[in-house]
Design brief:
mainly alpha, 27 helices, about 5% strand
Length: about 525
């Protein structure tokens, strides 16, 4: 029967199931590359089994109301995550087998707490609260590099092997229970099972070794990727200050990744000669805007949104560093838009554009925000909306899909559906089709493709795209329902005269069989 865990027991579980349920260095080549002693690999859990366990957990996270795929923030995180992956491959930490079998996806959550965690199968979780407090790309890279190293070093599978009396499905339930308990004690307790959950406390000493190894390997990965090692130490400094203030729960990362003087000293000793004295952290304008975006999206209460105006209108605001002003103005524009004060949003946009005019990347982010404000307001005539798109580099004639970001594709889809011009809808549909062909697990792209198809009156294709959205989120039951609906619609409409109709029907039939097989495999994993 479910039991009610004490705060201390839940904290211990959090240390294991979130921060410490991660990877260990198993390859001799990694030892040669990094020159560090490895803990060895005695794992009995295969990479395929670990991926299935990760999928099981990720499927529930996709359903969590806090899950968020904001393309602007996702693109920013991916700009850090992908170089880290490339560095891990180059160093030999990420083997070809793991590279192919694991998901390597970062899932964003609206949670305001400062936390990040690795899960089985190459999934990582990142709370917007952490994104909001890091002051540089290097600090964020240090966190992601640490979590990535947990995965590449097979810490999760080793812990599962050590707890061989616990079936993988039970471990998955424990991890989900701990994630739920961090937000709602009653919900979390309902998923945790007495003795099995509490037995995880015996893993704590082992997990501390893993944390130290993830520090060392993560530092090597982030520096190989071109990030400044100082980011690791400044992030530790930030966490240490929070720890001294007797963490009140806003920093779960401190509990899942226990901070010790040994870990801090080890990282400081690994800084390049002359780096022991930390230089002031330079906050980039784009990072300041992304941190502000994370704060707005993680706390959209009316009171919180109004506080952005108080900050900007403070007498001391203009004496703040320029990056601070840029971030605050970006947050104020978002807040005003959400409060439906479009006039204020546009006034502050003009001020913000004037500040960042010399920085191309920052200007592009502000232009994209300007388009978001216009799309949310629904108050501009089509010609003016197209002009804004042109200024933001979103005109459909300007960039090829190969070089477009997800943010650009999604904004183009939103612009096309609001404009409702057949030529624009056709062009966006073609771009999204190309994108999902290259990135079939991009649920957001599939969802927007479904929206565009619906605007074009292509109901069968829209249903199929909706089905692929659910497949990407690992919800095979929902995907099958939509594929069945698409087949029924094909029968109702009758056989078309074009070859495209037959191709669509054939694809839907094939995908239904494939999804049914995935559902059977999923059913076999259940207890």
């Amino acid at each position: 029967m479910p039991i009610s865990l004490s705060g201390k027991a839940r904290e211990a579980m959090l240390m294991v199931a979130i921060g410490a349920f991660l990877p260990f260095a198993a390859q001799a080549q990694s030892s040669v590359t990094s020159g560090l002693p490895l803990l060895g690999d005695s794992s009995d859990m295969t990479s395929s089994a670990e991926r299935r366990l990760g999928d099981r957990i990720a499927r529930e996270l996709y359903r969590d109301p806090d899950y968020l795929d904001d393309t602007v923030l996702s693109d920013y995180v991916q700009g850090i995550w992908q170089p880290l992956l490339a560095a891990a491959r180059l160093r030999g930490d990420l083997t070809p087998e793991l590279d192919e079998r694991f998901a390597w996806q970062v899932l964003l959550g609206r949670d305001r707490t400062v936390n990040a965690f690795a899960l089985p199968g190459g999934y990582l979780g990142l709370h917007l609260g952490l994104l909001a407090v890091v002051t540089s790309r290097d600090e964020l890279a240090s966190v992601l590099g640490h979590e990535l190293s947990h995965v590449t070093q097979r810490h999760i599978s080793r812990l599962v092997s050590k707890s061989s009396q616990q079936a993988p499905w039970m471990i998955g339930a424990m991890i989900l229970g701990v994630l739920a308990a961090s937000k709602n004690a009653d919900a979390g307790n309902a998923l945790l099972m007495g003795g099995q959950a509490l037995s995880a406390q015996s893993q704590l000493n082992f997990s501390r070794d893993m944390e130290r190894e993830a520090d060392r390997v993560g530092l090597g990965v982030m520096t190989q990727a071109g990030f400044d090692a100082q980011g690791f130490v400044t992030m530790f400094d930030k966490l240490q200050q929070a720890s001294r203030l007797n963490d009140n729960g806003a920093y779960p990362y401190l509990r899942s990744h226990p901070l010790t003087t040994e870990r801090i000293a080890d990282m400081q000793a690994r800084l390049p000669l002359g780096g022991a004295t930390l230089a002031p952290v330079s906050v980039g304008w784009v990072h300041a805007m992304m941190a502000a975006r994370a704060r707005v999206l993680s706390n959209s209460s009316a009171e919180s949104l109004r506080s952005w105006s108080v900050q900007v209108n403070d007498a001391a605001f203009k004496s703040q560093p320029l990056a601070v002003q840029v971030g605050a103005l970006y947050g104020l524009v978002m807040a005003a838009s959400q409060l439906r004060d479009v006039g204020e949003a546009r006034r502050q946009l003009r001020h913000l554009l004037a500040l960042v005019v010399t920085d191309a990347q920052a200007s592009r982010q502000v232009r994209w925000l300007e388009v978001e404000v216009a799309l949310a307001a629904h108050d501009l005539p089509p010609a003016q909306l197209r002009a804004l798109a042109q200024l933001a580099g979103l005109a459909l004639t300007q960039s090829a899909v190969e070089s477009a970001s997800r943010t650009e594709l999604v904004l183009q889809a939103q612009l096309a559906t609001q404009d409702d011009q057949p030529a624009a809808l056709a062009a966006v549909a073609q771009r999204l089709q190309t994108w999902v062909a290259l990135s079939p697990n991009d649920a957001t792209a599939w969802q927007w493709l479904a929206t565009v198809y619906t605007a074009q009156g292509q109901s069968v294709r829209a249903l199929r795209a909706n089905a692929e959205t659910q497949v990407a989120r690992l919800d095979y039951g929902a995907a099958l329902d939509r594929l069945k609906a698409a087949q029924e619609l094909v029968r109702q409409l009758g056989a078309g005269n074009s070859s495209a109709d037959h191709i669509d029907a054939s694809i839907i039939d094939t995908r239904r069989r494939q999804v049914e097989n995935l559902m059977k495999e999923q059913a076999l994993e259940r207890p």
